[in-house]
Design brief:
alpha+beta; 2 helices
Length: 122
């Protein structure tokens, strides 16, 4: 599924996990949560951690769609990307603090790296 990039607010970057933000296509039927995924950008494939849902810790209740690309930085030149979701990792929740959220994201990324280690994008 192709996704259009939109401007985010920079919360991910401040947490140490810069994300690419996307407009959610109407055709995308997705339960809110964190997912292991692959992104295809300009013919290259990247492993990613996708988040779809509200950003409770930042006072945002409307669901957002964003992807942290694991181990790479391609920001600024991305306009359209292709998404391939592999597996849901966890649901959405509010954390006691932004620091606790950052720790959970770190655990999510580690889990997603393990999940995608032997998975190939076709």
């Amino acid at each position: 599924m192709k996704l259009k990039v939109i401007k985010g607010l920079g919360e991910g970057r401040r947490l140490g996990f810069p994300t690419i933000n996307f407009a959610k296509p109407r055709a995308l039927r997705l339960e809110q949560g964190v997912y292991a995924c692959f992104m295809k950008i300009g013919g290259k494939k990247y492993k990613g951690a996708l988040y779809y849902g509200p950003k409770y810790n930042f006072g945002i209740s409307r669901p957002r769609l964003e992807v942290y690309l694991i181990g790479v930085c391609v920001f600024g030149r991305v306009r359209i990307a292709e998404l391939n979701i592999v597996k849901r990792v966890r649901g959405v929740r509010k954390f006691a603090s932004v620091s606790a959220l950052a720790q959970q994201i770190k655990r999510d990324v580690m889990r997603i790296k393990k999940l995608l280690k032997n998975v190939e994008l076709v």
